[in-house]
Amino acid sequence: MRRRYGVQNLALELIFAAFGVIALFPIYILVVVAFKSPTDVAQSALTPPTELYLDNFMVAWAQADLARAFVQTMLITAVSVAVLICLGSAAAYGLVRGSGRINRILLMLMILGISIPIQLGMVPLYQLMRDLGLLQTPWSVIIFSVGAYLPLTVFLYSGFLATQPSEYEEAAQVDGANAFQSFSRVVFPLLRPVTGTVVIVTSIHVWNDFLTPLLYLGGSDARTLTVAIFSFRGEYATEWGVVFAGILISILPIVLVFFVLQKYVIKGFASGLKG
Amino acid sequence: MTTTAAPAMRAGKNPKKGKHPTRRNLLWFALPALALYGTVLIYPTFAGAALAFTNSKGGRRADFVGLANFQTLLADQDAIRSVGNTILVTASLVIVQTALALMLAIGLHQKLKLRGALRTIFFLPFILPSLIVGVLWQFLYNPGGPIDSVLTSLGLGSLIQLWLGSTSVAIWSVIVALIWQNTGFSIVVYLAALEEVPAELYEASAIDGANARQNFWHITRPMLGPATTINITLTMVGALKIFDQIFVMTNGGPGVATQVLSLVTYQQSFVLGNYGYGSAIALVLTMIIAAAAFIQTWARRRAGAN
């Protein structure tokens, strides 16, 4: 295991390079086709573009109304994540540090929510949103997103908080801090690494969500990027270059986040899950 | 679920408990979260379960019909097929994705120069929207599309299929796309576990003259048990809920060849307006997920006891 780099490693390297090529192939096609003219795509989707054909991006941006969808998606993601951080960290504090037995039971019930499929509640929740007049507004998706990802958020916060000593909070308490002060001044700053994880993981989830935004916002001006791309694909079914250009625009932010914060993204997704 | 119960158990074992009489009941900190959780997840889930026993078509009126929806389901060949497909997709992902991820993670854990790049490449599909993954693979599978071109240029043209158009092949094509999307996540879970294996163990075993196979069997393998449990649990629960990719790639077709429970639920409730029947199918899906999680927990407890 700790030997020097040898022939065996080189062989392994080549085998893995082959796996890498296979895994990268779909992404390569996505990028290449987005930069090709329709005739170029018709000739071959595999070869690199003969010239950088940028019309696809202009057509997609204008026709799919991506600017508006971008603003909507950003708004929905930002508000949902901000609310998730506030409610999730406070709930974890109350349920982990609180003295009652009921706190532990509620914590478990809440975390159980991670595995509840949304399908069963889909109809009643849709009717509730309709009755509240929230359909076709971003608020319906924000409320859904916060509720849907609270179990994961509380799971991440509570798992971390339970491993931290409570001495600081107790010291603050001795100094006369009330519960809210010890939460906001001592506990919340302590939770910063988890807050980073929560931001990364939940914002990617909310950004990528499709079915709920489709049901709540489909056909309205408030549609998100995934919904816009979906209906756009229906209209431009044969013009893959345009569709893929739209896709590249819509995933640019999460791909950028992934590449810039890669270490944290990967750790974030893997971390909360250590049993 | 074992993985999710961990913080609760840790919290329960807080050694400070009882020593500090000033501890407060901080329940009100959790009230806003609990209220929203109740509104968005708990209430709709129970209301949906109740709908499953009615003939609701979406209006205000709905009559209690007992188990009629479930009787309909048993006689509904398409719905039965979707149960089978759901189980097939889930089992395939759990087995193939976990095995592939284990293999790739162990390889990546060696001193490979490409290690960082490969980890990025394998993980990238996981952060893409599932809808986009579906659109992308639909194009890849097009007759005469990229996959067919590659096969032709490799001289394997005879292997070409109607990837999404053939009733016997389509479900496997869908499974391949799902594996491509999700294996990176399982790899990362395994890599995290591998990094926690202390190097001293390997040094000690090297002194004892152990070979690579013995190292794997006696050191690496036992350390990967929890990671395998996590991967199987998450893959299983995730696979049962899969919707976007299949919705956009095949919409359950051709015929009902790729129909799964989450898709039937959506179609019955939101396309056909059969809220009662759609909810009954969703209830069956929920029961399968609960059973899967329960069996998983039970199996792990049993393994832990021995």
Overview of this protein structure:
The complex is a heterodimer of chains A (275) and B (306). Chain A has 275 residues and is mainly alpha-helical. Chain A folds into two domains: 7-53, no CATH class; 67-271, MetI-like fold. Helix content of chain A is 77%, strand content 0%. Chain A has helices at 7-34, 38-43, 55-63, 66-97, 101-112, 118-131, 138-161, 167-174, 179-190, 192-208, 211-217, 225-235, 240-260, 262-271. In chain A, helix 4 packs antiparallel against helix 5, helix 7 runs antiparallel to helix 10 (192-208) and helix 10 (192-208) crosses helix 14 (262-271). The longest helix of chain A is centred in the N-terminal third of the chain and has 32 residues, at 66-97. The relative contact order of chain A is 0.13. The mean pLDDT of chain A is 89. Chain B is globular. Chain B has helices at 2-12, 31-51, 68-75, 77-109, 115-127, 130-140, 146-153, 170-195, 199-207, 212-223, 225-241, 244-249, 261-271, 275-305. Chain B has one domain (63-305): MetI-like fold, CATH 1.10.3720. Chain B is built from 14 helices and no strands. Chain B has 306 residues and is mainly α. In chain B, helix 5 packs across helix 8, helix 8 (170-195) runs antiparallel to helix 11 and helix 11 (225-241) runs antiparallel to helix 14. The model of chain B is unreliable at 1-21 (pLDDT under 50).
